[in-house]
Write a structure and sequence with these properties.
This protein has 219 residues and is an alpha/beta fold. It is 41% helix and 16% strand. The chain has a single domain, classed as 3-Layer(aba) Sandwich (Glycerol-3-phosphate (1)-acyltransferase), CATH 3.40.1130.10.
Length: 219
Amino acid sequence: MNYKYYPTPHGKRIYRFLHRIGHPLFKGLVNFEVKGQEYVPVASGGIIMSNHVSYLDPVFLGAAVPREFHSIARDDLFGVRFFGDLITYFNAIPIKRGKPDLKNLRNILSMLKEDKLLLMFPEGTRSVGGTLGEALEGAGFIAYRANVPVIPVFLKGTDIILPKHAKGVKRAKVSVRFGPAIELTELRNMRRARESYKPIAQEIMKGIATLKTCADNEV
């Protein structure tokens, strides 16, 4: 099946409109708090690495990130009627789950070299109960190969509004906290590149865990 990798001009207009109204809209609907936006690169390439607890995560992150970004989604989601078009409008790029997808990985790396911003969920799937899972090695691979700043993010509250396997939605506070770029220079300079992928992925989750601790201590 062929998928659209980037939105049409009409889709980009929809994205920009929703991005513009997203933050004030969510502040009106829920208690929406964003901290650390200054850590997001203003114009250069970068990767936003966030925990993943709900299908709503990309929507709230779309409102929190101060500039346009692309994201990675399972390729089978693009075949779902209406939903596939929706995530295409939001700059989603399909990736085959559990299989090598070199073509799309090359597209992603090229995009980052063009100073685009990418959102990734390094755990690869939604976690349950607010816990953090283990990052997939693929997250370390992309962070290594792209050689751009990696910004950790901790997202909290979307799992209450729409938890995994939920049949309805609830009202809850949602907070998004960005952290400073993760220091990966030493890992990127390892003699054997492949041996660095897993340690980089682990370092990314440590960065997210640090932000989680800060968020939990504020409660």
